[in-house]
Amino acid sequence: MTVVTVGVHIVDILARPVEHIPEGQDTVLVDQIRLTAAGAAAGTAVDLAKLGHDVVTMGSIGDDELGDFLLMILAKRGVDVSRLVRRPGEQTAASILPIRPDGGRPSFHVPGANLGVTYADLDTETLLRARAIHLGGMDVTFGLGDPAFFELLDTARANGAVVTMDLLSELPDLLGMARAFLPHVDYVLPNESQALLTTGTDDVESAARALLADGPRGVLVTQGEAGSLVVTEDGVRQVPALKTDVADTTGCGDAYCAGFVTGLLHDQDVLTAARWGTAAAARVATGLGSDAGLTDLDSTLALL
């Protein structure tokens, strides 16, 4: 089942456990350091490939060494990178993530080439052949807020594709701009903070209902250890998180999206697909980085 991810591509450099940033030139020994493909498009693409899909990813990266690494690791994980655009002279987006002992993840981030993605960078024929399209980080890929892209998404949906969208930032102005996509997607999957900031409401259910009113078929708000809130025209349901030993929460949202899309493509209903997303997120939380712990669909569903 061909799935296309569109949007943000990042190289994550992670270390754990980090209890404090040393002063001066002091050194702190840690247990593990990893480099991974991350971001709401790249990280989700890797997870989708691990769950058994043929995955094509689209977006913009730099022509630097980080870009070389990102292409290599995505291809190694089974993702088709032939449609990624490389920007001469620009940096590939990257984050440094010192992971706390409780799995928390403060970050140092450079957005890099993600900010320059435009509709002209996309392979429209591949998008129109996809069974599913996942939009990752439309709040920071400003150039994709293009009427021509909205029209393409509408055409893809009319042809039977499912379109999902995840967000990246927690900046109200950027999140507000991403609402323009909502009439053109089937499901939007923000985290709790993003849902509240996007709508200006003070409780999650009201925020989800406000987003639902903008046009998608469903809103799934991820809430960390509280699970996720699923809101559709049929009502509101809470899907509990699965108990797991959390090593790092990086990429749990991307994994949730990948599991959810996988459920939909296996003809599951929305609530069951949300449970598949919950299981994928639980697997990722057990290791360091956005794809850690996730190996295949069968072992993921075994958690349920």
From TrEMBL:
Residues 4-292 form the Carbohydrate kinase PfkB domain. GO terms for molecular function: kinase activity. GO terms for cellular component: cytosol. Pfam families: PfkB (PF00294). The keyword DNA repair does not apply. The keyword Zinc-finger does not apply. InterPro entries: PfkB_dom, Ribokinase-like. Keywords: Kinase, Transferase. This is Sugar/nucleoside kinase (Ribokinase family). It comes from Nonomuraea fuscirosea.
